[in-house]
Amino acid sequence: MVCVEPKYRKFVINKVEFTRMDTNHQATNGKSNLGEAYIRQDEAEIELALQVQHAEPGDAGLLALLTERYFGEVFRLAQILLTHAGGKLPTESDVLQVILQTFTFVSLHPHRFHGKISLRNWLLRMTIRQAFKARRGKGRSPATVTQEDTAPVSDENSEGFWTRFDHLSEKQRLILSLRYACNMQVADLADMLQMRLKNAHTILITARHELMGGVPAAHRADQLDAYLDALLAAEPFARDELESHLQKCHECEAYLAHMRAFEKQLRQETQQRWPALSWTSHEVEQFVKNVVAQLPERRARRVRRTSVRKVASAASILLLFAVFGAYPIAKSVTLSLHATNGPQDQVYVGLANYHFLLSDADFH
Questions:
Q1: What does 178-233 look like in DSSP terms, one character per residue?
Q2: Is the pTM of this model over 0.90?
Q3: Which uninterrupted H or E stretch holds 21?
Q4: Which of 60-64, 144-148, 166-170, 255-259 has the lowest mean pLDDT?
Q5: Vertex 169 angle, CA 93 and 210, to 5°
Q6: Which string of b and e fits 143-174 if b means at least 16 CB within 10 Å?
Q7: pLDDT (mean) for 263-287
Q8: Distance of CA 345 to the CA centre of its chain
């Protein structure tokens, strides 16, 4: 029996080095600098993120992996963003066009992924940009929608639920959809939308309360909402104190139970309205071919803007030093070695003049 010693791989996450077992016995080449979002990610996510960081534009193999893993979530989010007020769902061709543009952009610009947020959230951010671009191109006008394209309504309560949902602001609808249809944590959706965590959570709470139509009373509602959205994980003392309080206060306990039940309904309703589409391997392969067909011919890789800026900044600093530093120093050294005939010389400089003055009785 031959024992093979397991190899380990090193990942740099937020400037901290982590070591994981390499099950494929392959060494990691190149450097990576992934953000804190990857501390809680599985190895498959980290591996894929590293591939994107070091990928060349138009990598069909990487595009296939991304499509296979994230197509369903991208499809669902594109559906959400293209849904018109009143429950009118977009046509599948409109959704697929946004998805095609999203993966085309990702394939052309893998260097735009810096690893500060998770790869999944970065792809969803690109989906949001492409969907808004498509909407601006159509002037926000709804496409022709038949009765079959209208979102299904199960009962009167559901109909009232979606009526209230459609009356929310666009930002409220987006944050609710990301939280429940896409199963995204509040901190992740705040990063993806480039918002402050407190602002994103405030919008989520307001939208949730408006959607409910009525909120039960609770004297610690703010803390309970933060607890409900897992925002007290970083504050164990506050979390433990609140959990102890819940055992004594029936009002707060009822509030939390009511909110959890509504969250469950909200998740079910949104995921039923916007289902994730799953594709076979053959359909993924055909989609990748369509994306690759849209890519322009490969050109020489352009120098990144960040590199150009760094070179320009260094050159300007060197120029300033040469003009105001190196040149005066060199001139002074040259003049100090320049021999003169004493103070009567027109150029009253040089080491000889200095010695002459020291030995001159009149000078003292």
A1: IIIIS---HHHHHHHTT--HHHHHHHHHHHHHHHHS-----TTHHHHHHHHTT-ST
A2: no
A3: strand 16-22
A4: 144-148
A5: 120
A6: eeeeeeeebeeeeeebeebbeebeebeeebbb
A7: 86
A8: 71
For 195, the token pair is 């918002």
Q: Considering only CA atoms, which of 332, 364, 362 is closest in space to residue 350?
A: 332
Residues recorded for the chain: 364
Of 133, 103, 113, nearest in space to 38 by CA: 113
B/e letters for 326-364, b = 16+ CB within 10 Å, e = fewer, are eeeeeeeeeeeeeebeeeeeeeeebebbeebeeeeeeee
Give Cα separations from 31 to 12, 53, 62, 248, 288 (angstroms): 8, 9, 18, 53, 28
In angstroms, the Cα distances linking 270 to 138, 267, 277 are 25, 5, 14
Cα–Cα distances (Å) from 198 to 153, 192, 217, 237, 351, in that order, read: 34, 14, 22, 20, 69
Mean per-residue pLDDT of the chain: 76
What's CA 227's distance to the chain center, in Å?
24
Q: State pLDDT tens for residues 179-198.
A: 999 988 998 889 888 899 99
**Res. 5 pLDDT band, cuts 50 70 90:** very low
**DSSP state, residue 24:** T
The first and second tokens of residue 178, run together, are 């990301």
CB 171 within 8 A of CB 200: no
Is the pLDDT at 292 greater than 50? The verdict is yes
